[in-house]
Amino acid sequence: MTAYNCTCALSGAMQSGLSSYTTQRSAGEQSEYFSHYLYEQAFRVSEFLLNTFSEICMSIDDTIHYHFADHLKTIELVHAVLVDPISEISQILAQSLANEGTLFWAGNGGSAADSQHLAAELVGRFSKKRKALRSIALNTDTSILTCVANDFSYDQIFSRQLEALARPGDVFIGVSTSGNSPNIIKAFEVANKMSVETVGLLGKDGGEAKSIVNVSLVVPSSSTARIQEAHILIGHILCDLIEKELSLD
Questions:
Q1: How far is CA 82 from CA 77, 87, 202, 231, in A?
Q2: Treating both helix axes as pointing N-terminal to C-terminal, what angle do 224-245 and 60-81 enclose, rounded to 10 degrees?
Q3: Which of 46, 87, 199, 224 can pair with 14 through a Cys bridge, CB separation 3.0 to 4.6 Å?
């Protein structure tokens, strides 16, 4: 039996048993509220067991093939729906740099690593030797991050830096797989007030950030890993387009 069949069989059996159990209890001595609560808790346990059982049933090769297939599916979707937004964003970034503006990047966790990576591609180089470009990752200075987090709020670790460093005509690129990171949302809000262009590299449904940025790019996936993989590919494409659009030497 395949991992998929194992999981489906267990899912059907558990959900059938849960439905039968809660029906009996709600019809008997337990209140409707307790029955609903019990079902909800039991379903959470069953969901956990299903995930665990799926991992056990899936072989090492199955797992490898799954991740490659899921990655390729996500990248194909990105290719199908995000070419125009990528082109638009590349022009915004290139125009700001052409006008001596600065690109500010920020994210949390893996998105912080992506922000540093992409800022470095522009300050250093992506594919050819050329002049350095003004690009800063706001998640790299531990003294500023801990100072602002301690004295103000963790939600302000990026927005406070924008207040100090950004100017009209600059661009803030917030990287968030959910689109709901509070410190990224706060930074977008502050940037908008400062006439700093806002770009969201987002995922899932775009979250709160999608509605407050000037331009958003939402990777059509619910997997954090797949979103991050797509973000770094998109970031590399943006770097390549910037170098081409500015005809840099």
A1: 8, 9, 12, 12
A2: 40
A3: 46
- In CATH terms, the fold of domain 73-245 is Rossmann fold (3.40.50)
The residue assigned the tokens 């979103």 is: 227
The sign of the dihedral angle between the CA atoms of 185, 86, 225, 221 is positive
Torsion sign over Cα 134, 184, 118, 138: positive
Strands 135-137 and 215-219, by their bridges, are unpaired
Structure tokens that stand for 59 in this block: 């072989």
Residue 106: other Cβ atoms inside 10 A: 29
- For residue 63, what are the contacts with CB-CB under 8 A and spacing of at least 6? none
247: pLDDT confidence band, cut at 50, 70 and 90?
A: confident
Q: Tell the burial category of 130 from Cβ atoms under 10 Å away from its Cβ (0-12, 13-18, 19+).
A: middle
Distance, CA of 170 to CA of 214 (rounded, Å): 13
Percent of the chain with pLDDT over 70: 77
pTM for the model stands at 0.77
pLDDT score, position 21: 44
